[in-house]
Write a structure and sequence with these properties.
This protein has about 210 residues and is mainly α. It contains eight helices and no strands. Helices cover about 75% and strands about 0% of the residues. Helix 5 packs antiparallel against helix 6. The longest helix is centred in the C-terminal third of the chain and has 39 residues. The radius of gyration is 22 Å and the shape is globular. The termini are far apart.
Length: about 210
């Protein structure tokens, strides 16, 4: 079986359909809202983390079997550990500051949030800024030694060397974490509702 390789109009139509469905899901799940990111960072609302964990729970076996049956190609290349770690830290700080990632800012702009346009402009300006920093820091960071066997671990991951225990472990752990966060969220929301109800009862004047 050959991997999926759409070209021309079918590729364009498939991109439109997938983009529409993905944007619809982001809006319905409130992931396109800046408030969702801010509440997650402040541990007030776990919806973002739950959505991410559920997507990993579904995505890991999905990509595994698509690769196993030859519908997609997954060819990991060697990577440098420290540039990824530093990039992840910078990305996390950016998300904490603006409450968006690129895809959610685009979806948010599509829903009419003008603030998202400023976020997109800031993200675009980050490219030349990072290129200028990379000119004198990139080589230093890239040349730092990686942790032992990190590339070997990636190459021997569940997709490529038959390490199928991860196929069951990763989705299971993510699903348990998602259920745990959901239970915490429900208990906290019910607690708030109960306290608000009791306070309202106390405020009612006696007849």
């Amino acid at each position: 079986m050959h991997p999926l390789a759409l070209t021309g109009n079918p590729k364009f139509i498939a991109a439109l359909i997938i983009g529409f469905l993905f944007g619809f899901i982001l809006v319905k799940a409130s992931i396109s809202e800046r408030k969702t990111f801010i509440n997650q960072i402040n541990f007030k609302d776990n919806s973002l983390a739950i959505t991410y964990l559920i997507s990993v729970t579904i995505g890991v076996p999905l990509f595994y079997f698509l690769h196993k049956f030859g519908l997609i190609n997954l060819n990991p290349s060697n990577y440098k550990f420290w540039p990824i770690v530093i990039g992840a830290i910078i990305t996390g700080l950016g998300v904490a500051l603006c409450g968006h990632i690129p895809i959610t800012s685009i979806v948010s702009l599509g829903t009419g949030k003008v603030y998202s346009l400023l976020v997109l402009i800031g993200m675009l300006l980050a490219f030349p800024a990072m290129q200028s920093i990379d000119s004198f820091l990139g080589n230093y960071i890239t040349n730092q030694p990686d942790p032992a066997n990190i590339n070997e671990l990636a190459q021997n991951s569940l997709f490529f060397k038959g390490q199928t225990i991860m196929l069951y472990l990763i989705p299971f752990v993510c699903l348990i974490l998602a259920l745990f966060l959901r239970l915490i969220q429900r208990s906290s929301s019910s607690g708030k509702g109960g306290s608000e109800g009791s306070s309202q009862k106390k405020e009612q004047p006696k007849k």
